[in-house]
């Protein structure tokens, strides 16, 4: 019997490769196959090898046809991992009618190694003798690689700590890995064929899921942090990634979802956020000002700190330099010395300057960081009210002591007026009589001196009584400019005699009425005008200039709270060495022309109105006296 039908007359029948024409359908079919095909006779000689066998395993028809199978240029290295020469291979085939070798490793003539499998079949004669052997070799190298890759991929999927599940194109779950089962509590058996909706927590709205489906159906990868629900109802956070897989035609066939459990870090973030909010609340509501400084610049301050110093924490003006608030250089040097020596400042009393220029008193604690030079953290406790109370207390005590002294002086002065006025009147009267009767110029000069000194002594006694006891002038609301005009009217004759020109450096503004003892305030203005006149007459020979300026001082609300009066001249100013004493009683710079009580009386009047008086610079010289009065002084001192 022949291989393709008919009878065989001899064991050594003609070789098919020689007798079968190329036009033979079977021959052409065998050459189209991807398997390597060999046809052997009953003795193992190669009768036919198709094109795939020649291309893959090596050799030519002339090298193979008619030669024994053992002589082919390729070799079998092992079968199922065990060394397996071709001799054993053929012996096994001859012992069976049909079979296969599923796991062969073959090395070709060009020394390339392949994984393959082999199927064989035998054709026997009527008497049972093998007449033909058909061998078919399949190249499984790529499939082995794919299989190995799939095994590695499966191992990775099963061993990964991230939960993975795969759904079909309809969204039903087909596969979950062990990490998914551990994370969600659902086994593959429980959730296979179900929708991932089982994991919904209800915390994502429909817009979220609409965006999810639009993304993955467009073939794009969806990523989001999602809150899902476990089988037992517990919620968990996960970073979820969903991507699609497609077939060779580009059609989506499944979706792969990877869930990375981020519950712990999310809980830590939430805890940190809550802690941070609580800490911020503590900082924002702390009674102490808390601040941080880097390179002498305030880089952080809680609201209390900025409020203490009059800054808006939300404004760019809140960027404060230390030198802007700690203006006393000596104090800065002391504090820097403490930091350099100990790395901290503990409970130091400090005098700072607020944004509006007003004083601030506080207790300061500061700590330096050795690992971060230039960085300081500190706490500031407001002591301004306490300091003001202490200062006011000291002031009241001082006023009380001074009042007690002045009361004694007042009693003395009152007695002096009664005891001295009569003799002074007599002396003054006789002086006038002598002046009328005397002709000698020298004697007349002496009489004039007696009269002048008698007038001076009388004025001194009256000023002393006024300084000690004051008067009972009532309070009334007046226009500040009327006070100015009345004082100038009184001083005008003297100013004209001395050829002193009066000017206003500022334009008049609309000012509120001021509650005060108008006669006393006029007395203060007149006293300052006379002092300015005397200074100009002494120091300036021409172009004598004097002025009174009045303007309002607004508080934080933007409303005028104080009125400032300034009396200035173009004289040389008050010498530096006497400035600290000019408001002391009985101090005078006019030699024999003054009593030394004018500025002291003025200071007392201003302070009785809760005001302040002082000396300022004008035109670069200390030639401006000023005083400030509150708009409404209902409780005079």
Automatic annotation (TrEMBL):
Sequence ranges assigned to domain PAS in this UniProt record:
22-66, 149-193
Q: Which UniProt keywords apply?
A: ATP-binding, Kinase, Nucleotide-binding, Phosphoprotein, Transferase, Two-component regulatory system
The record places domain PAC at 220-274
Task: Tell me which InterPro entries the record gives.
Answer: HATPase_C_sf (IPR036890), HATPase_dom (IPR003594), His_kinase_dom (IPR005467), HisK_dim/P_dom (IPR003661), HisK_dim/P_sf (IPR036097), PAS (IPR000014), PAS-assoc_C (IPR000700), PAS-like_dom_sf (IPR035965)
Q: Name one GO biological process term.
A: regulation of DNA-templated transcription
Q: GO molecular function of the protein, one example?
A: phosphorelay sensor kinase activity
Quick check: keyword Phosphoprotein in the entry?
A: yes
UniProt cross-references to Gene3D superfamilies, sorted A to Z: 1.10.287.130, Histidine kinase-like ATPase, C-terminal domain (3.30.565.10), PAS domain (3.30.450.20)
The catalytic activity, as recorded, is: ATP + protein L-histidine = ADP + protein N-phospho-L-histidine
State the EC number(s): 2.7.13.3
Q: Which residues form the Histidine kinase domain?
A: 415-633
Q: What is this protein called?
A: histidine kinase
- From what organism does this protein derive? Leptospira broomii serovar Hurstbridge str. 5399
């Amino acid at each position: 019997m022949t291989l393709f039908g008919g009878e065989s007359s001899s064991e050594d029948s003609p070789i098919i490769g020689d007798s079968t024409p190329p036009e033979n359908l079977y021959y052409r079919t065998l050459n189209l196959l991807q398997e390597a095909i060999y046809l052997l006779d009953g003795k193992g000689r190669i009768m036919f090898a198709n094109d795939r066998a020649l291309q893959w395993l090596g050799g030519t028809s002339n090298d193979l046809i008619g030669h024994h199978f053992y002589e082919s240029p390729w070799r079998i290295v092992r079968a199922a991992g065990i060394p397996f020469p071709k001799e054993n291979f053929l012996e096994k085939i001859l012992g069976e009618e049909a079979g296969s070798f599923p796991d062969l490793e073959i090395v070709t003539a060009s020394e390339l190694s392949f994984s393959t499998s082999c199927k064989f079949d035998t054709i026997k004669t009527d008497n049972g003798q093998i007449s033909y052997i058909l061998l078919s070799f399949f190249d499984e190298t790529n499939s082995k690689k794919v299989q190995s890759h799939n095994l590695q991929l499966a191992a990775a999927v099963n061993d990964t700590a991230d939960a993975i599940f795969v759904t079909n194109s309809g969204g039903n779950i087909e596969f979950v890995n062990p990490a998914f089962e551990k994370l969600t509590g659902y086994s593959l058996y429980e959730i296979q064929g179900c929708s991932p909706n089982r994991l919904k927590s209800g915390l994502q709205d429909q817009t979220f899921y609409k965006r999810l489906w639009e993304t993955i159906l467009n073939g794009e990868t969806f990523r989001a942090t999602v809150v899902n629900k476990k089988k037992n109802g517990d919620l968990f956070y996960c970073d979820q990634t969903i991507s699609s897989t497609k077939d060779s035609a580009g059609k989506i066939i499944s979706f792969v979802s990877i869930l990375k459990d981020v519950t712990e870090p999310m809980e830590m973030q939430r805890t940190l956020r809550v802690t941070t909010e609580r800490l911020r609340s503590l900082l924002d509501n702390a009674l102490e000002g808390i601040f941080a400084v880097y390179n002498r610049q305030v880089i952080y301050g809680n609201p209390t700190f900025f409020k203490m110093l009059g800054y808006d924490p939300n404004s760019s003006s809140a960027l404060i330099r230390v030198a802007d608030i700690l203006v006393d250089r000596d104090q800065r040097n002391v504090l820097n010395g403490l930091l350099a020596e100990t790395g901290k400042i503990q409970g130091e009393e400090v005098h700072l300057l607020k944004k509006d220029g007003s004083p601030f008193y506080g207790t300061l604690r500061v700590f330096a960081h050795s690992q971060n030079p230039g960085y300081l953290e500190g706490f500031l406790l407001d002591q301004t009210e306490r300091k003001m109370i202490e200062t006011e207390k000291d002031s009241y005590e001082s006023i009380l002591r001074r009042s007690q002294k002045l009361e004694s002086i007042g009693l003395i002065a009152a007695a002096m007026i009664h005891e001295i006025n009569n003799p002074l009147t007599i002396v003054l009267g006789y002086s006038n009589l002598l002046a009328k009767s005397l002709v000698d110029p020298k004697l007349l000069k002496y009489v004039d001196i007696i009269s002048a000194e008698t007038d001076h002594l009388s004025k001194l006694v009256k000023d002393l009584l006024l300084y000690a006891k004051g008067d009972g002038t009532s309070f009334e609301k007046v226009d500040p400019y009327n006070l100015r005009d009345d004082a100038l009217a009184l001083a005008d004759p003297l100013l004209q005699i001395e050829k002193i020109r009066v000017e206003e450096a500022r334009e008049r503004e609309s000012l509120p009425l001021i509650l005060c003892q108008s006669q006393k305030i006029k007395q203060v203005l007149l006293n300052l005008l006379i002092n300015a006149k005397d200074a100009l007459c002494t120091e300036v020979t021409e172009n004598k200039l004097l002025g009174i300026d009045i303007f309002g001082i607004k508080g934080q609300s933007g409303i005028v709270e104080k009125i400032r009066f300034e009396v200035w001249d173009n004289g040389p100013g008050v010498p530096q060495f006497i400035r600290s004493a000019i408001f002391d009683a009985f101090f005078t710079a006019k030699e024999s022309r003054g009593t030394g009580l004018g500025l002291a009386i003025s200071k007392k009047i201003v302070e009785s109105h809760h005001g302040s008086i002082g000396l300022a610079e004008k035109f670069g010289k200390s030639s401006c006296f000023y005083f400030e009065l509150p708009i409404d002084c209902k409780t005079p001192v």
